[in-house]
Fold these 2 entries.
Entry 1:
Amino acid sequence: MTTLSTGRGPAGKAAGPSLTSVSAGRKVKDRVVQGLVYLAFLLALVPLVSVLWTVVVNGAKRLDPTFFQFSMNAVSGSDKGGGAYHAIIGTLEQVLITSLIAVPIAVLTAIYLVEYAGNGRLGKLISFTVDVMTGIPSIVAGLFVLALWLLTFGFDYSGLAGSLALTILMIPTVVRATEEMLKLVPNDLREASYALGVPRWRTVCFVVLPTAMTGIVTGVMLAVARVMGETAPLLLTIFFTKAINNDPFTGPQASLPTFIWEQAADPSQNSIDRAWTGALVLIGIIMLLNLVARFVARRKAPTGR
Amino acid sequence: MTSETGARTAAAARRHAGGVRMGTGRAGDRIFVSAARGSGIAVLLIMAAIAAFLVWKAIPALQDNKANFLTAEEWNPNATPPRFGIAQLAFGTVVSSLLAMLIATPVGVGIALFISFYSPRRLASGLGYVVDLLAAVPSIVYGLWGLAFLSQHMEGISRFLNSVLGWIPLFGGDSPGKNSIFTASVVLAIMILPIISSISREVFLQVPRANVEAALAIGATRWEMIRMAVLPYGRSGMIGGAMLGLGRAMGETIAVAMVLTFVPGINVHLLENGGATFASNIANSFAEASVTGRGALIASGLVLFVITLLVNMAARAVVARRKEFV
């Protein structure tokens, strides 16, 4: 990249006048493009700053202890008070279950792709499927769980159903992140381990995985942050409740995104304030996860050896 | 012992070279391989199951449908007899996401150029992170922001566009509003910016150094260098990134559902209130849907699934083409 910054060099320094002069037209064009490129970046900052600012300003109004201690049970839309306790509990439980299901499947899939599949046909097919899965619209994941879990198997709306939908969205992201990290582990490490007579699975579990661990943790945290904000699949699978439901396996549960959706649909200002505070809490958790993930990634990268 | 180890190392080496043979005959290895392969196959099965169950649950509703599923504009699956069609939804989805792609692609590529070639080198990764933060904001928050903040400001812009460009049908109409497809497209454009810029950045990083330096050595300005060396090389990446953004915009649900006010019927005047997409319709009408209504929503979801699948596969193919040339 250093060479690029010298891009203007030929125009400015040394050489004879015939070589240094860049015609005015070319200079102007260069400057115009530079201006446009700067503008593009600033244009991207506008919505980011605006979103964060609006959420913080509007969300701060109801950021009080009540919000974290009470549910919306017996609180009607136009009432003051009420909180998102039930929604926060729901989101945490759903994301936890999602991670428990998705992470093992995704990490093992990535291990298969990197360590075992080679150039085989199955490996290519799985890799392709993971790519395709990345692009599944989240609402389609919700519809699938609706069609399979609720309509075919006849289960009721529950936090678990929501987790199943989120699992579909989480698997591809974690597979890709893990794959990248496993590929970074130097082959020397594996060969050294084989040379010591360590079986292959122990090599993967105790040499390869620990080396790639920080990267995998980062990937998982980013994936968790991503599914935590998903609303659409939850609308179809956990449904709505205003009461606290600690059991993710039976009955409708709330979650922060659906809480925001529900409150924002109510015309009363008190509800809209609650929606903004919900958004602030959600965005806060997600940004925190993102920051911690970055921090973990920076502290120890697997390429260190 | 030594010979055994040696043999295993040789086997390991062979495996790394050929990559096909696996399993050393040990129980632990066998269990581990089957677990890993099983997970991979589970991913395949999930994908197959998604397609199968959506089709299966959509068929009864489609059989009851008394209107033409592809061409009808109405959506009344709860009525007797049920009548529903996807024409309006398809129109809203395609138009809003194409418009979003048109808005976001130049900006996204510009951001990628800025981070790769214009920004101070030390700041590059930090700035990339800032743009990635746009992707971290959940769609429900974009929806809330779009509804409460952006749409208020879009009204003026829409009126302006309407008065200046009103002679073009797309910008025409009598009453430009704030909850229009145009507003939804702007929200979508913001949401797909990060993916377009990150994929463009990836290909810009792969541009051979020699090409860049050769361009500079013959006295090119920075823009000429970008035009000669970077853009031709990165073209497939930029197109692929734009298409991935298109796929994502098509599937985006909540933000669109919150911004749009539903008005039945196709309206080509994009600045007027109204419009619906596949995804927003599912989110908005699910709570009141009857059995047939759910089936109808699943059927429309199936169409969305197929469209996004095609767009994404095409995008991946375009991005991958570059890899083969390198």
Note: The radius of gyration of chain A is 25 Å.
Entry 2:
Amino acid sequence: MKFSILINEGPYTHQASDSAYQFAKSVLAKGHEIFRIFFYHDGVNNATRLTTPPQDDRNIVNRWSKLAEEHKLDMVVCVAAAQRRGIVDEGEAKRNGKDATNLAPGFRISGLGQLIEAGIQADRMVTFGD
Amino acid sequence: MTTKKFMMVNRKAPYGTVYALESLEVVLIAAAFEQDVSLAFLDDGVYQLKKGHQTKGIEMKGFEKTYGALEDYDVTKLYVDQESMAARGLTADDLCVPVEVMSRAELGKMMEEQDVVLSF
């Protein structure tokens, strides 16, 4: 089966991103396909490579990057939500005159159309958040 | 393009969190993709449609007018949960747009018919 995943909450405050990660791993382990993972609202905060949790805690951002690399996942961050919260890649930095970038490897910034397409293309869209 | 039935389920008050505003964004994009879009309002989400949003005091952009503009995007399926309205002392007359008021069971049936349900 082909899944799309929507993550609506940021890391560490809310379990949404952790649950989505466990779900994604299980989906892949069972031989299913993930068409896209879309990060929306505070969920875009899962995509900053500047995250530095204590050493005995999980690194939620790196964990996503690693999973994306291993399975060639398409992880998309909503551009409007990212701009509001300071999640920046090189293109966005240039466009908006910012002096730094922080988008973690494996993520890309794009529009809400990618969420709708994810809903169209997948057999199931699974949302993580309140 | 494939047309699927998308339902945005709105459960939160309009300005305490960003979700109501973002739900409208998704609705407009889904409409632009020519999808079969509907909106459901339940729990505190019914407050999103209440007439007379006044947002000056909280320094937020008001978006009541957007609900009225949905028709221009061919989005006309607005479903409101009767129980949620009654619990909050609201009737359809208090709302800023025409809606279809339905029971929880009917709303549940509508959800079952959807291809994609996004909850905000």
Note: The mean pLDDT of chain B is 97.
